[in-house]
Amino acid sequence: MRRILVVDDDLHTRLAMRVWLKQCGFRVAIADGGPNGLATLDDATFDLMIVDIFMPNMRGFESIRIFHARAPTVPLIASSGYAFSGPETDNVACLKMALSLGATMCLHKPFRPATLLSVIDECLSEAEPHRRYAATLAAVTTAPSEQQGGMASSDISKERIATG
Known about the structure:
Elements lengths: L2 E5 L3 H13 L3 E5 L2 H10 L4 E5 L9 H9 L5 E5 L7 H13 L4 E4 L4 H15 L1 H14 L18 E2 L2
Parallel strand pairs: 1-2, 1-3, 3-4, 4-5, 5-6
Helix pairs in contact: 5-6
């Protein structure tokens, strides 16, 4: 069972994500801010982190840099209702900053459960390409009438903001 750490200062966001993710079979740990999130990260291992960019006691994108430094191999989804909500040029600058500091993907709040799950699936697939290969192989074997030569895995750019 995959373990996900959710770090967000907003109580409703944390609880909603915990409920959604548990319903999908994930084990979820939640933390109410940077210091508690880092303590939780030090006490356990996780397959993925979802970290709010702007939280008390952490300055802006500092949270991404610190969490990525503590667990550099764990995919990190940076979430924000502020950083990715400005004019298009600000979105691009914020996105590039988040990715350069260690985020795997960015998620704009508010979002739907389906969007969250899609971003998580993409991050976990990138972290474990053999699982993607296994899923592709299963799809090929269950659809023998389709041409195998024309199949290609979709390559969704990491440089995007998931919204919705």
